[in-house]
Design a protein that fits this description.
Helices cover 38% and strands 24% of the residues. The chain is of the alpha/beta class. A five-stranded mixed β-barrel has the order 8-11-9-10-12. It has eleven helices and 13 strands.
């Protein structure tokens, strides 16, 4: 079955990036000059998914606006002769078909996914988290789709992390099927070092069967009343097979300040007009220390 829809939760408050996110959604903070959310949406498009469901919150309307047409701005740019920028803006507006649903209370990632139930319907779907930026020749979600096409079951993205990092992630225990593929047996949300079954961390890319919705309805809320997506997937793994795949590519946790800086530098170095001056600047900064 072809995956036609992607859910992107964007209702978070972005408190780790205050005061910048007091009025600007964290998803619109730029990596150089492109909002993070655009990279994530582009990954869905490059994977063959055209319909994106944003799970939004109060003050997040500007995310949808970013993917809309702005005729007034285009007219001004055309009058100034900036035709390349006009074409760039039009490509963004034509990138995806956007629909949205409001998550009225911040009750966790599992609840955010559950909010999209009526828009997704009874079909498998993708979930992409905007805090995770993955640079890879083959889009991460496309890699998971290839596994889904073969197995017909839910697939989650995995990355091997260092022991002192495990407390930041959901961690998977599973049976290894090949060099990158695992059959998930157990999941632990943010374990303490020394109490983890592995160092295989769940990264924010998922292909989920629609049965996840009924399971999320039954999840017992944890701390702060939040419904954890990992709890729903853990129950799904007890009823059906769930696979984990160690994706190929470079991962940046841009929900973290250091990760955001790393991504900005890395993506600047990928730009022909910026690579040389950025390298020179970095060398100059390092030489002064």
């Amino acid at each position: 079955m072809k995956i036609k829809k992607a859910v992107i939760p964007v209702a978070g408050l972005g408190t780790r990036f205050l005061p910048a996110t007091k009025t600007v959604p964290k998803e619109l903070l730029p990596i150089v000059d492109i909002p993070a959310i655009q990279y994530v949406a582009q990954e869905a498009v490059d994977s063959g998914i055209a319909e994106v469901i944003f799970v939004t919150g109060r003050g997040k309307d500007s995310i949808e606006d970013h993917f809309d047409e702005i005729p007034e701005l285009e007219q001004v740019l055309e009058e100034r002769g900036q035709t390349e920028m006009v074409e760039s803006l039009r490509r963004i507006a034509e990138m995806i078909e956007v629909v949205s649903v409001r998550q009225k209370r911040p009750l966790g990632l599992g609840h955010a996914v559950l909010c999209a139930r009526d828009l997704v319907g009874n079909e498998p779907f993708a979930v992409l988290l905007s805090d995770d930026l993955i640079d890879s020749p083959s889009p991460c979600i496309r890699q998971l789709l290839d596994i889904f096409d073969e197995k017909g079951e839910s697939v989650i993205a995995l990355r091997r992390v260092l022991e002192h990092e495990v407390h930041r992630y959901g961690i998977v225990q599973g049976r290894q099927l090949n060099s990158r593929l695992y059959e998930v047996e157990n999941m632990v949300e943010k374990p303490r070092p020394g109490e983890t079954p592995s160092r295989l961390a769940i990264i924010g890319r998922y292909i989920l069967r629609p049965e996840i919705f009924s399971l999320l309805e039954k999840v017992t809320p944890g701390r702060g009343g939040e419904i954890q997506l990992t709890d729903g997937i853990s129950e799904l793994a007890r009823q059906k097979k769930v696979y984990g795949y160690e994706f190929e590519g470079e991962h940046y946790d841009i929900g973290d300040k250091l990760g955001f800086v790393k991504a900005t530098v890395a993506y600047a170095l990928k730009r022909a007009e910026l690579e040389r001056p950025v390298r020179e600047y970095l060398r100059a900064v390092i030489s002064k220390r």
